[in-house]
Write a structure and sequence with these properties.
Layout (H helix, E strand, L loop, with lengths): L1 H11 L19 H15 L16 H17 L1
Helix pairs in contact: 1-2
Length: about 80
């Protein structure tokens, strides 16, 4: 799973993979359109539904936050 997410992030901006901050958007590594595209791609790749309300900074702050977000959605989906 993490490899798939890393591959998607690398397509957007390879620097995301080594980014240690907590705001990809503010630091200029990703823009709002790319966040939306990433959410759509994550949904398709992992078969999860990402609602517009879930596309917030906490879930897309950095690579680790994105991985945690996808794991949480997968767990919720499997529990339901």
């Amino acid at each position: 799973m993490e490899a798939k997410i890393s591959a998607l992030l690398k397509e957007i901006n390879e620097e995301i993979l080594t980014y240690k901050g907590d705001n990809l958007y503010k630091d200029g590594l990703i823009d709002s359109i790319q966040v939306i595209d990433l959410a759509v791609e994550l949904g398709e790749v992992f078969g999860i539904e990402i609602t517009p309300e879930a596309v917030v900074l906490e879930n897309f702050a950095n690579k680790e936050a994105i991985i945690h977000f996808v794991k949480r959605l997968l767990e919720e989906q499997n529990a339901g």
